[in-house]
Specification:
Elements lengths: L4 E7 L2 E5 L19 H10 L8 E5 L3 E6 L3 E8 L2 E5 L2 E3 L5 E4 L3 E7 L4 E6 L30 E3 L22 E8 L8 H9 L2 E3 L7 E5 L14 E2 L4 E3 L7 E3 L6 E2 L3 E5 L4 H4 L7 E6 L3
Parallel strand pairs: 12-20
Antiparallel strand pairs: 1-4, 1-11, 2-3, 3-10, 4-9, 5-8, 5-10, 6-7, 6-9, 12-19, 13-14, 13-20, 14-17, 15-18, 16-17, 16-19
């Protein structure tokens, strides 16, 4: 194999290829998918001079280890949930351009806060696009399979745009308690007013039964005042769907496009990147975005 590439030596709990996602396919049952924290991947791409839609690696809870292969040098950057970054065992800066040479090994430690970190390489990852995106969709199975040790990822040609003259980018770590703004959902009338108030008054805990599809939350029961079930209707990222047990599920990037449980509220799109950084065990609060 010729050209620049990344050899995957270790993936941690989960590592996938992600970009901005698939647009315009919901009517065929295909969600957008893409990076759970889109701004973090976009920042990594900007740091190495890539286009905003270039594909990179999304890693969960760190543990990613890659070896660079190719002539000359390539710049990479790591953003998202902050953790230790090493290059050939030497500590390297986070959210800053880093130089890799042939045989260089880059490793990401577990994040000190948050959940997902992003690795961008100048030129982007050159995996085959599916429906216009290189993103791995865990629900539909579209895109490349989750990464495994032994995989090799081709790197595209460096972009013609000049390399940005940036030493490092300021970025804040995800908080210990996650506060997300919500608007009333399309089925909030399936719940009594006190249930809607309870949603915003309670502290919720993100459970370990969570992934890129959605976050299962644990807390007080949100009781319905209507019986029965809905026919399947459209779902969006950020929807807070409430199954019969009264424990809400917050849909993320790989959410299903339809669902039959009532949606009590919807998280603002501007807060979805923060939701993508919620780790198991974290406290989650909701507050009304109504003016």
């Amino acid at each position: 194999m010729t050209g620049w590439r990344l050899e995957i030596l270790a993936t941690g709990p989960l590592a996938t290829v992600q970009d901005r996602g698939r647009f315009g396919w919901a009517e065929l049952g295909v969600p957008r998918s893409g990076a759970a924290d889109g701004p973090a991947l976009a920042l990594a791409n900007r740091l190495v001079g890539n286009a905003a839609d270039a594909a990179g690696v999304e890693t969960t809870f760190g543990g990613l280890r890659v070896r660079a292969r190719g002539r000359g040098v390539r710049y990479v950057a790591v953003t998202g949930a902050p953790g230790a970054v090493t290059v050939d065992g030497i500590p390297a800066p986070f959210a800053a351009p880093l130089v890799l040479r042939d045989g260089t090994v880059l490793e990401l430690g577990p994040p000190a806060s948050g959940l997902r970190s992003y690795l961008a390489v100048r030129g982007g990852l050159d995996v085959p696009p599916v429906l216009g995106s290189r993103a791995t969709d865990l629900l539909s199975g579209l895109g490349p399979a989750p990464l495994r040790a032994g995989d090799t990822l081709r790197v595209g040609s460096p972009p013609a745009a000049p390399f940005p003259g940036v030493d490092a980018a300021p970025c804040s770590a995800p908080p210990g308690e996650f506060a997300l703004r919500v608007l009333p959902g399309p089925r909030d009338d399936w719940f009594p007013p006190e249930a809607v108030e309870l949603l915003c008054a309670a502290r919720w805990t993100a459970t370990s039964s969570s992934n890129r599809v959605g976050i299962r939350l644990s807390g007080p029961e949100l009781r319905r005042e209507r019986d029965g079930e809905l026919p399947a209707e459209g779902m969006v990222a950020g929807a807070l769907q409430v199954p019969p047990n009264g424990q809400p599920v917050l849909f993320l990037a790989d959410h299903p496009v339809t669902g039959g449980y009532p949606v009590i509220a919807v998280v603002l799109g501007a807060d979805l990147p923060l939701a993508g950084q919620i780790p198991p065990g974290a406290t989650v609060r909701f507050r009304s975005a109504r003016v």
